[in-house]
Amino acid sequence: MFFRPAKLACAALLVACASAxxxxxxxxxxxxxxxxxxxxxxxxxxxxxxxxxxxxxGYMANFLIDTxxxxxxxxxxxxxxxxxxxxxxxxxxxxxxxSGAFAxxxxxxxxxxxxxxxxxxxxxxxTITGLPEGVARYLSAQWDKWSGRARSLSDRSQREFENRGxxxxxxxxxxxxxxxxxxxxxQPPADLKNHAWYARAGGExxxxxxxxxxxxxxxxxxxxxLGVDPNSSNPVLNQELDTLAWAAVWGNxxxxxxxxxxxxxxxxxxxxxxxxxxxxxxxxPGQLRxxxxxxxxxxxxxxTVIRGFLHRGGFTDxxxxxxxxxxxxxxxxxxxxxxxxLAAKTHGEVEARYLxxxxxxxxxxxxxxxxxxxxxxxxxAWRTPAGKLILPLPVDYLSWNADLHAFFDQPSLRAANxxxxxxxxxxxxxxxxxxxxxxxxxxxxxxxxxxAYARFGEFASGKLE
Length: 465
Hints:
This protein has helices at about 5-25, 75-95, 100-110, 145, 155-165, 205-225, 235-250, 255-260, 265-275, 280, 285-295, 305-310, 315-330, 335-345, 350-365, 400-410, 430-435; strands at about 30-35, 45, 50, 55, 60-65, 70-75, 370-375, 380-385, 390-395, 395-400, 420, 425, 440-445. By secondary structure, the chain is α+β, with helices and mostly antiparallel strands. Strands 1, 2, 3, 4, 5 and 6 form a 6-stranded antiparallel beta sheet that branches. It has a 5-stranded mixed beta sheet with strand order 7-8-9-11-13, sandwiched between helices. The chain is globular, with a radius of gyration of 25 Å.
């Protein structure tokens, strides 16, 4: 009897919360003009032009770049900057394929020009339905399905056993919802050995193995000279690197030396990019994995999670190394295992870069020392010793929708002192919703290697209709 008023008050509060949730206003992700998102140097140059209309999907901007090599897609502002920085290298490779030792080797092998790698798109608005989903999964309403990850030693042992028993089955994780293939879908081959190059008989096995090792070495040498990431996802750049690396193997000459004889290529490309990771380029993939594993063992306690991260997810060797470097800078008191478990479930480069950039955003905060890293649904956050909550969101444009509503209302994000770091821009509706929930908002937060987002004074309020 004495608790009845309290019960009535609680019921009234629940009704009010439900009503507020039901009356929340949402907005679709917009189509913006490119100058609203990036500074002028990334919009046009002597050999490229960015299509003005930019559709935002999964909080990331989707750009189309017109180049002499055909249209090239970039799935975020960061990827736009990377693709433009790769253009000098692509031009150098194109010149090399038509002159010197490369041309002779390619002619001898009767090189054929294949069909275009990318489809010509004359109007990006017509292809919105086919655009990538950016990093929507990190902030999806499905976060509750991803937050119940196995944490006990027995659960982890069971997960490891499942992997050994069935290499085609990934254990449950924070980003695996709806990823299981249907029972009647494509099945793995019964005998993998019969489908691999090393299944061939006779001396051809040894010859092909040697050629493949030489190809990898030549490819890394080309990337090092040009100052590009050997693990780039640029399809045009990759085709050129592959073609010239094999040409050097076939012609039995040094790709690095031959490329150096092509005037005005390497030095210019390296100077323009300014982002060459010499550490990655100086080591083989095996050496990188071994080095990263040892460094992670000093930060994380779960060997199974470390191994999973080193062999799974959307991370390339370059991005894995970048994540390890950022983790070492932060040296979190806890949370390393959860981050790696999340990283092992990423899909593709954009999601992997999101995690790396999230760590970079945290690292820029002066009060982040001796803090704790934790997962909030399928995203990461940081808690300082004073109890301040820092939520990094390395996104291009944040629009307010039902998924974000559910994400920001989760219990793990409740704190008296909290700040959200957004690397790009947020709509006014999103800013109002976050402010109403007690968040301090910082927009266009700089971090190491951040792309050239549009300056505050340059940002226009209009959207394309």
